[in-house]
Amino acid sequence: MQQERTAAAGISANLPKIIFIAAAASTLLPAIQPPVALLLGLALAQTTGNPFAAVTPRITHWLLQLAVIGLGFGMNMHTAIKAGSDGFLLTIASIAGTLVLGTLLGKILGIEKNTAHLISCGTAICGGSAIAAISPVIRATDRQISVALGIIFLLNSLALFIFPVIGHWLNLSQQQFGIWSAIAIHDTSSVVGAANKYGEEALQIATTVKLSRALWILPVAFLSAFLFKNGQHKIKIPWFIGIFLLVVVLNTWIPALATAGPYLVFSAKTALSLTLFLIGTGLTRQTFSSLGWQPLLQGILLWVAISAGALMAVISLIK
């Protein structure tokens, strides 16, 4: 009897870990699409919690990078160049406009300068990656970083569901949706998830435009260092962008890769589902309650502005 009680107590104590591992494993099944994986992680965050919270951010970081690299095996360099050039002018205009509007909203709403700048950079460029790169440059505190990341991840989660619905409602083409989602959705993970749901061509275009957009971290970081009078920190540029570009080139010029390409792309999409699940497990009630209404309002207004502006530009310029 004592042994049975001890065993039952052990199972009860480890139940959150068992549930977490089972849920994570389920996202590897083809039936679990990225939006569903995100919802599953979000539900877990509100109930049993994440017993591996100390390590999942690092795992998420690496998984996303590997997933993006894997998607490169399904792309062609000529298509990638065309997609990048189509979104180039829109990228410059949207980044500049978002940073200016974000600064003005930060002052109007009375938000800390660092927090407002991080939210603006995350919205303008590539979400969490931009925040991670810019935060040491402006000497942001842990709380400022967490608030900015929380808002970006929250809006990313909404975009994953909202954007495909709007795209189909407006009958956007694959090219139009790919460029729009790459410009208007903050983080690479949600861009890829939304575009993947819309179509293969949209996925290729969105991934290329989003990663070319991420290169703007460098000039924005230098501008931030100048504005915040801080040139003492190194600027971290996501290394996986270079590998992604190399993979696209190799996939274009080495026919042998065409055989393995579909399997690698499938593995990358599976990794993306697991990534979004892990992101969802970090969106706890504590995360939501710590945001504050002013930074959240800034993030929402910026997101609506860039989404509406990019959508109008895409519809009018790209047929």
Automatic annotation (TrEMBL):
The keyword Transmembrane applies. GO terms for cellular component: plasma membrane. Keywords: Cell membrane, Membrane, Transmembrane, Transmembrane helix. It holds the Pfam family Cons_hypoth698. It is a multi-pass membrane protein. The keyword Transmembrane helix applies. It is found in: Cell membrane. Belongs to the UPF0324 family. PANTHER family: INNER MEMBRANE PROTEIN YEIH-RELATED (PTHR30106), UPF0324 MEMBRANE PROTEIN FN0533 (PTHR30106:SF1). This is Sulfate exporter family transporter. It comes from Chitinophaga solisilvae.
